[in-house]
Amino acid sequence: MAGKDSFSLDELDGSRDVAEFDSHAAKDLEAIYDIPVQISAVLGKATMQVSQLLKLGRGAVVELDRKVGEAIDIYVNNRLVARGEVVVVEDRLGVTMTEIIKSDRS
């Protein structure tokens, strides 16, 4: 039996106001708004041997697998969610999302 706060798709026959449904869904989401997530923006990656890594010193340049102007990957909790571009916001670096990556999760 359905609880007070749940409903079935059969109950959505138009008798319920869409705005009321959206408001109810928004209130349900409020419970997760304060959960912290880790966001990472990956400019690129490189693979090297430990011997090469140990030879690196100050001023060394590590070549990444991305080209200038190519989109960077944006991860939330180690899950790829978007691609974007690096931007400068005052005196800090930031990221603007240009593409949302659809998840295959069901």
UniProtKB/TrEMBL annotation:
Physiological role: FliN is one of three proteins (FliG, FliN, FliM) that form the rotor-mounted switch complex (C ring), located at the base of the basal body. This complex interacts with the CheY and CheZ chemotaxis proteins, in addition to contacting components of the motor that determine the direction of flagellar rotation.
GO cellular component: bacterial-type flagellum basal body; plasma membrane
Membrane topology listed for this record: Peripheral membrane protein
One annotated GO biological process: chemotaxis
Protein source organism: Skermanella stibiiresistens SB22
Protein name (database record): Flagellar motor switch protein FliN
Keywords of this entry: Bacterial flagellum, Cell membrane, Cell projection, Chemotaxis, Cilium, Flagellar rotation, Flagellum, Membrane
PANTHER family: FLAGELLAR MOTOR SWITCH PROTEIN FLIN, PTHR43484
GO MF terms, alphabetically ordered: cytoskeletal motor activity
Domain of life: Bacteria
Localization per Swiss-Prot or TrEMBL: Cell membrane; Bacterial flagellum basal body
InterPro entries named among the record's database cross-references: FliN (IPR012826), FliN-like_C (IPR001543), FliN/MopA/SpaO (IPR051469), FliN_T3SS_HrcQb (IPR001172), SpoA-like_sf (IPR036429)
Domain Flagellar motor switch protein FliN-like C-terminal: 31-101
Family: Belongs to the FliN/MopA/SpaO family.
UniProt-listed Gene3D superfamilies: SpoA-like
